[in-house]
Amino acid sequence: MALDRLFRNIVLDILTLGCAGLPLLLLLLLGEPYRRGYFEDDESIRLPLKPETISEGALAAAGFSIVIVAIVAIELFRDKQGKGIGDKYLSGSLVPGWVWESYRAIGVYTFGAACQQLSANMGKYVVGRLRPYFYDVCRPLPNLTSPLNELGYIVDYTCQGTDANLIMIARLSFPSAHSSYAMYTALYLIFYIQVKAKWRGSKLLRHGVQFAIFMSAWYVGMSRVVDHKHHWSDVAAGFLNGTITAVLTFVYILKPKKYGLPPSWRETGQDVQNELPRPAMAR
Q1: Which of 83, 86, 178, 265 matches a 20 to 30 Å C-alpha distance to 280?
Q2: What global pTM score does this model have?
Q3: Which listed residue (178, 207, 228, 231) is catalytic?
Q4: Average of pLDDT values for 200-229?
Q5: What ranges do the domains of the chain cover?
Q6: Quick check: is 230 catalytic?
């Protein structure tokens, strides 16, 4: 019965990941962004096209690699300390507890990553905000005789640019999916380290690592503005989307409460004894 339940849980996990990833795949392959107009005097969309500092593929590869390595290392360390869960059996084969916990944490992370990318990209296609380099790749030619353009907001126009794919991408500015994924990954890993990576070493080492992870995500977002890929508000919205998804995924899906709260810095009985009130001397 336990074997059937374990195998069923794995199958359900895979199906759930597929249900989260399939709409994202269909959106990216078949979706058409909203065709938004522009104001002639809008300088924010007249910046030149620049190469990006961090590509989408490089960000995804780095994010997943760091999370996988960190989770496996933490679970191995916990297992050696005797803090891991018991071993499990799958199809008659022994599955170490640290392997199962790593699978569970990485699976939850992957599900959350798919959800935040779906929400971010849905916003891109629905809103259709123009990227800062839109004018450079589209080179729009407004229809001067169209009554739709009379109020100064150009809706009826033709792009003179020849790269249709680049023009379509230039309509996907809000929110920043790079920033959303970077912040989601950073916060998920920061929370995981806070809850599970416990040691009696330096009081600042763990928090220093967490700060470095956060600053990496911050740099990703700032690079999107510097590279003219997004407006600052796109990056802010991406950070917010990633933050909300990370908190909901970690708290309500991974459910860290069962691991207990991180211990205080005073872990020995001697420290507690030293803090007991001394008996008052009779006078």
Answers
A1: 265
A2: 0.87
A3: 178
A4: 94
A5: 2-260
A6: yes
